Amino acid sequence: MLPSNLRETVPISVRQRHKPVRTYRLRPPGESLQPTRKSRLAQVTAQHSTNPFTIITNSDQLKKACWLLEQAEAVGLDCETTHLDPYKGDIRLTQLSNDRHTYVIDHKHFHGPCGFQPLKQLLESLRPRTICHHAKFDQKWLLKKLGIQLGGIFDTMLASQLIHFNRKSHNLATLAKLYLGVTLDKTLQSSDWTGDLSETQLQYAVRDSQVLPPLRKALITKLSQDSLIRAAQLEFEAVPTVAAIELAGIYLDLERWKEQLTIITHQHQTLAAELQELLAAGAPQGTLFGHTQINLDAHPQILNALKRLNVPIDKSTKSNLLLPLAKQFPVVAKLLEYRPLSKALTSYGESWFTGINPITQRVHPDFNQIGAPTGRFSCTDPNIQQVPHTNGYRRCFRAPEGRTFCIVDYSQIELRILAEFSQDPAFLAAFRSGADLHKTTASQVFNISIDQVSPEQRDFAKRLNFGVVYGIGAPRFANMTGTSLREAEATLRRYFQTYRLLYNYLRDAATQALQDRQIRSASGRLVRYRFDPNNKEQVSSTRRKARNAPIQGTGSDIFKRALRLVGEELRGTSAQIVNIIHDEIVVEVDAYEAEDIGRRVSLRMVQAGEEYLTSVPIKAEPQITSEWIKD
DNA sequence: GTGAAGGGCCAC
DNA sequence: AAACGTGGCCCTTCAC
After folding, report:
1. Is there contact between A270 and strand C, defined as CB under 7 Å from any strand atom?
2. What is the CATH number of domain A360-413+556-625?
3. pTM of this structure
4. Which tens digits make up the pLDDT trace of A278-291?
C-alpha cells in the first residue's frame, strides 16, 4: 500500500513530462521591499514568466500566507542563505510556493525565531507536504535557526537519484528541464545574498521554488511507474535525522590527534629511510649525488626499483600480490610496513583538524544519503566512515565532559538478510540458535560439534560467510586464506552443500538480474545494470554485483528506517546522533541518561529490522563508552 | 596551472 | 591476469 501522503496524489494517467510550467501575469507584489522599483520588477517578471509573489516582512503577513498555503497538498520550499554553513551565516529568504503563488519571507525583517510560529506549524505538520530540492540543506537551516523539523518531506533530488542513480546531474535545473521542459538559470545561486536584493535575485528565488510543485507531480508519476514509492518514502523520512547528524557534528580531540600524528610521523620517517636504503641496493652506481632517491609514494618508481631487485612482479605493486613475496624479499616486507603509515599520514593527518568548525569545535562531515546505487550512504569532508579502527585514531573521537557515547550496531545484518531471502534452513537455524554465527558455520561446514571448532576454523568460516555476500570465488579465497586453489574450491563446495538454498538463492538472483538488467532491495529500491551480454567479464561482474545489491540494499533500507525511528525517539532528550557507519549509530548523550538511551536506540533499530525481516532475529546491542571504541 | 586517470588503501 | 560488493581520499603521472 502507498503511504498516505503520496497515495492520493499519484496521477493515474496524467503525463506531466515535458509539459511546460504554466505562466502567470505578474500581480504587483503587495508588500514589496522596494515599491519604487515595482514597474521594473514587473517587466523582468513578465519576460521570465514567474509566479505572482508576495514579499513577507512581518508575522501577520506570514500568518496569513501560512493559512493560505495550508490548503495546498504540497508546498515548495527553498531557503536562500548568506553562507553554506548554518553556523556561519543566516537565512536571507525563504520562498514558499503552491501551484499559483509564491510567498517570499524576508528574514531581515524578523528578529529571532518567535515570529515564525505559523511557519513552524505549517512545516511541522504532515500536510501539506514540503517539497525541497536537497531537503537536507534547508532542513539544517530551519532546524538551526528556527527550530523547525519538517513534518512531511518530498525531496526532488533524492527522488531523481532513486529513479536513475547513474544520471550525471541531479540538480534542480537539470530536473526542471528534463521533467518540465523549463530552463532555470542557476547563476545567481552563489550570488551575494547579504545586502539589498536585486530584482533578478528575487526572480531567481521565486522561480526556484515555484518549479517544485509541478516537479513533484512529474516525479511522483515516474516513481509510481518504477514502483519506487515506498523507497522514496523511506528516504524522505530519514532526511531530518541526517540533517540533525550533520548539525551536531562530532567532537575531535585535537591533542590526541596530534599525539597520534607525531607517533606516525616518526615511524614513517624511520621506515622511509630504511626502505630507501633497501631500494638503493639495486640502483645503478655512480650517480652524481650518490644514491638515486626514489619517491616512495610513486607506484611506477617503486615497481621499477623492485624489478631491478629481481622481485618477480609484473605491473602491479598491490599489497595482496606482494604479501607472498615478503618473506623472501626484505625490501617487500619493508614496503608493506611503510605503506599503511604513508596512508595514515596523508589521509588521517592535518587535513582533519582544519576541518574542525571554529564555532562548534567539532567535525561536521557531509553525508550523501544516496551515496551508492544500493542506497548506502557515502560521506565526505571528511569521510568519517573510513577512520581506521585502531584505537590510536578512534580514541580521538570522544564525548565531551559530562557526556558519553552510546554505540549501537547491527549484528551481522547482511548475513541475516541473506538468511531471510534464501530461507535456507541451516543458515536460519544458525541465527535462531543465538550461538556464535561463525562457530556455528564452522561446525556445520566441517561437520563437527560447536565445542570442537578451533579458532582457525572459526576464522575460516568467518571469511567464508563474508566472502559469500560479495560473490567470492575460489582463487581469491585461496589467496586470502593461504590455502591451495584445490582446497579453496573444496571448501566453497562444502559451504554451499551445507547451505543449499543459500546457493540456489544467490544463483537465481544473479540469473534473474542478468535477464531483467535490474534488481531490487526489500523496500523496492531499484539497481539497474548496463552490460554487454557478449562480454564475459562484464557479465560475471554484473552477476557478482547483482548477488550483492539486494543484500546491501536491504541493509541500507533497514538502516534508513532505523534512522527515522531513532531520530524520533531521541527528540526531547539530551541525546544526538553524531555518526553513522552503514550499520552502526553513534549517539552522544548526557552520561546519566546513557543506559536508558542505549536501550531505546537498540529497540528502535531492532524494530526497523523486524519490519523487513521476519524469519531471523535482529540483534543490535548498545555499548556505552566515552570514546568511539567498540569491543 | 588544472583536471582526469591510475594505483593504492581506509571503512563497512 | 584476475577472478569480492559499496564508497572516499591521497598521491603521482600525464594531457591539455
Report:
1. no
2. 3.30.70.370
3. 0.90
4. 888 766 654 544 45
